[in-house]
Amino acid sequence: MKKITIIGTGFAALAAVRKLRAQDAGAEITVIGKKAEFVYLPSLIWIPSGLRRPEDLVVPLDSYFRRMRVKFHAGEATGLRDGGRVVLTDSGEVANDGLIIASGGRFIKKLPGIEHAITPCEGVAAAIRIRDRLREIQGGTIAVGFGGNPNEPSAMRGGPMFEFLFGLHTQLVREGRRDRFKLVFFNPMKEPGKRLGDKAVKGLLAAMASRGVETHLGHKIKGFAADKVMTGGGDIPAGLILFMPGMTGNAWFDNTDLPRSPGGLLKADPYCRVEGCDKVYVAGDSGSFPGPDWMPKQAHMADLQAMAAAANLLAELSGRAPVQTFKVELICIVDSLDAGMFVWRTARTSVVLPPLSWMHGLKRLFEWWFLRRLS
Predict the structure, then answer these.
(1) CATH superfamily of the domain spanning 109-246
(2) pTM for the full model?
(3) Does the structure show a pLDDT above 90 at 197?
(4) Of the residues 131, 181, 292, 331, which has the maximum number of CB atoms within 10 A of its CB?
(5) Is the pLDDT confidence value at 268 over 90?
């Protein structure tokens, strides 16, 4: 019986479970994670407005794992031994015949004063902080921005910050308070959202202008204070700062011999196999993959990589060479609480639709469909 271990409980990990079980009914699958639960991160944008409650987005996985015949090991990975055949955790060791690493990324928090900014995609607690802070303040400036990893251009998450920005505007309008607030979007790039494509950049900037959002672009971010963002182009006074730093690899990667990219992620080949490693694969935010510089760090891309990783690992365990590659595809709906801008990009295609009310409904429908499968 094949013994396969997956590290993580996010999108990539669950996609790997589905693919493995669909292709091999008898494989012994063990998932390692801090808790047997899944957090639907894309809908964190709706917590500040009350459209979603925290408990709506945290899904226990016990019944799902039972249905998929998955063993769960409660613990956090701390390293690897024997070329990846043993995963070290803070609650014991887990042996395997094949390994898929889907433990996500880690935000780079080196900027001075970054503790004064809220990083929304850190999880439910961060979204609650935004919600509670909005209830406290009566007016002033809200600054929203994101940065990157200078050594890993793809290791950034800009999309959610556009959604938080547009969502805040809509929320404040609905509450009759928009005139009391200044919204400022800041970014070290002159064309933020460039990975979405030129059409999307123009659309995003136009959407900001139409909502009265001020922009502070093309200036290096130097740091933060309790009441301001400090950049090479001057300070931005702000009573609330939302900032998404660039990402790097998990701290526990340092306790392995796995090859790393310049940005600290695990180096993968076109088959999602960690370069030079035997039956060790990576999917999602943990990996640095060959492909175009606009390759996104998003749930859809993580799913595609995880399915390729699972198929190739099973092939290797059966004595065959891995042949499954993954499609590089960016699909997202940039939501604003009342509408959504659809963006689709592949190697050959770039489609951007202007904000449409039914796109917001479609995003909510997808959330329902995805979470329903885990119940």
Answers:
(1) FAD/NAD(P)-binding domain (3.50.50.60)
(2) 0.96
(3) no
(4) 181
(5) yes
